Amino acid sequence: MTQLRVESLSKTFGGVHAVAGLSFEVARGAVHSVIGPNGAGKTTLLNLLTGIYVPSSGRIAFEGDDLTGRAPHEFAARGIARTFQNLQVFSNMSALENVMVGRYLHERCSLLAAMLRLPRVARAERECREESAELMRFVGLGTYLSAAAAALPYGALKRLEIARALATRPKMALLDEPAAGLNPTETLAMDELIGRMAGLGITVVLVEHNMRLVMGVSDHILVLDYGQKLAEGTAEAVREDPRVIEAYLGAAER
Amino acid sequence: MLAHLAAPRTRGLLALAAFIALLPLALSNAYYYDVAVLVGLNAIVCVGLNLLIGYAGQISLGHAGFFGLGAYGSAVLTARFGWPPVAALGAATAGVMALAFMIGRPILRLKGHYLAVATLGMGVIISIVVATEDRLTGGPDGMAVPPLALFGTAVQGERAWYWLTGALLLAAVWLALNLVDSPPGRALRALHSTEVGAEVVGIDSARHKVMVFVVSAAFAAVAGSLNAHYAGFVTPAKVTFLHSIELVTMVVFGGMASTFGAVIGAAVLTTLPQLLTLFKDYEMVVFGAVMMGTMVFLPRGLVPSLAALARRTRP
Amino acid sequence: MSAAFVQYLLTGLTVGAIYALVALGFSIIYNASQVINFAQGEFVMIGGMGAVWLSAAGLPLPLAVVLAVAAATLVGLALEKLAVEPARGAPVVVLIIITIGASIFLRGLATIVWDKKLHVLQPFSGDAPIAVLGATILPQSLWVLGVTLLIVLLLAWFFGRTLLGKAMLATSHNRLAAQLVGVNVRSLLCLSFGLSAALGAVAGVLVAPITLTSYDVGVMLGLKGFAAAILGGMGSGAGAVVGGLVLGIAESMSAGYVSSAYKDVIAFAIMLSVLFFMPSGLLGKRASDRV
Prior knowledge:
- The complex is a heterotrimer.
- Chain B has helices at residues 2-6, 8-22, 30-55, 63-80, 85-107, 112-132, 134-137, 158-180, 183-193, 195-200, 205-231, 241-254, 259-276, 283-297, 302-313; strands at 143-144, 148-150, 153-155, 233-234.
- By secondary structure, chain B is mainly alpha-helical.
- In chain B, helix 3 packs across helix 12 (241-254), helix 4 (63-80) runs parallel beside helix 6 (112-132) and helix 4 packs across helix 11 (205-231).
- The model of chain B has no long low-confidence stretch (mean pLDDT 88).
- In chain C, strands 1-2 form a two-stranded antiparallel ribbon.
- In chain C, helix 1 (3-33) crosses helix 6 and helix 2 packs across helix 8.
- Chains B and C meet through helix 6, helix 12 and helix 14 of B and helix 4, helix 9 and helix 11 of C.
């Protein structure tokens, strides 16, 4: 069941074709990885898929709806969540509040109701707090429930972004290099967390450099090079593809 | 229920209420009450402006424009058209909110210095219009304003105004504190931290910026209206760039992202010029020096700097 | 061409040249430090008031002018060293308050050292109007236009041909890279303030015989010079000049043909329109964001 369909997507900056004529599909509930050398256009692709960049041409359809050219908050409202390679954590709040912000789409709270702190708002706040704490435990941040976001170590911040993304109750989560900067133990924990997310029925689209993680967790891999599709398929197919080996995997075959 | 009472928000509100209730013991004559009323009205503006500057991370160098429009709106409606003061206050505030809504969209697409300057331009245009349309506004000399009337009786005298302003300040602080700890409030703080991060969780940052701009304009307009009735007159001096700067300085001085900081900032920087009239000719020099000095040495503002100091010296 | 049109044009060019000089000052500082110096108008004031005071004290006019400009330059250097440098890296709103505080401080100082009255400076070469195409122009206006042209040419030479000028431009494009190739960024920052102050003071001296001067003449001139810089494109020298002239002419024309009461609004209305529709101005660089 195709959930995301990308058709002839292109993004040009000045003279640089960051993404060129890219077409692919993502199945619902799958773990779909996007790999490629640096500069292949992976982060640009994620920015396009969350509305942060407007495509120069092409089409993005999610669950049948054409989302091309919409604003980022509209992509989020459709159920697409995202984490960042360069963390975009809200460092002026506590870790818990970061996750609570993630629930924004599901908190129907008018400005007036908020300012008057109507009883249902107060109740909703308590529920929000509890659910956010649950999410933090789910991603393994139970010890940081009362910490300020700015005080968390790097590995915890990556998981905090995931908790925040999960708080949006997404149908699809785009993770931009979630294992970057993590040591082997933390990477293993991330691997396991991605599995648990998929277990919740969330489609996971993963941009990663860590081949062991990618090969272990993916149902489907898309290989990019110079903004274009180089190959795609299952982990075995991609591993054997001579074009991929030549362009990228050769050195990491071990 | 008791846990709720012990929350820092509630404690702060109770402390402020206690302070307002007990301050009259220290105020010995009408002049001091007058200063207290002016502090209270400025504090109401600053609490709103702090939501915009401190929490949402935007800037406005034109908020005296909203204050002035609230003041002139009330003045014109009551003095020239005979409206009841409370209705005039409501109408003026609604008008200012509508204006802020219309200007907000295009202006808040700008950031940093550009946003600062655009709001400055807006404020200056408002002040020129107000000073030039003299048939309506009395021009550079201003116009007289009838007293405020609540439930048929006029509110007159510094003492009566003190209690009215105190109550309204408490209400303003309560509203602001509620907003900060709510989904819209967190959305504002989020977009201050990283707009991309906020957008990606579904926050329409443009809409929120306009929203907080309108709310802060409303606070300013209400305070302006009240100021007009309290003083009994309005002049274009209330709408100047200098007044906008004073308001921003109060917010930044007290501590951004701190509602009580905004109140304290208003208190300090409203009483300071009163002290400075002792200096007569040195008023501008001292005020300018204070502005520069506090920004250079306490860039995070008074309340956060003191809080940091307290944390460091705790054993 | 009607005589009225020529008159408005000449007035507009003259006042536009002044705006151009002030705008150049803004652009130079903005380029060097990303700071908008709200005290720029006060340099204009110091130039004019200083020259008035010194020549009233008996100094010959040329000497008074030179000393007034020098004094403003020193004030500019002091401002940078004492108020701007200690606050490097502070958020935008803090920097804005610092320079505004400086402008209030300088105005207050002016009321103490001088007074709050209006003063007139003796015109450089008399005040007999010269007839041009049916309109008249004051000799002082010719001075304004001539000196402004000279300054623009000098600055073009400085930024385009000298090593120091090119270093300043390099710093504005990429501060870190400039530091890495050995440019002393701190002293360039100082220099930029001094240069801008000198430009402002020259403008003040030039215009004082025409429009009179007082302790608060810098407020409106500063704001309008700033609007001109935005119109031309913040950070662009050519833009500052073009912006200044366009603004001056627009203001003069609308005051003449539309309404003189709202003359001051024109500058800000133009500025807001530029910010809304064309934020990089007429000649500025178009910025694109990378996430």
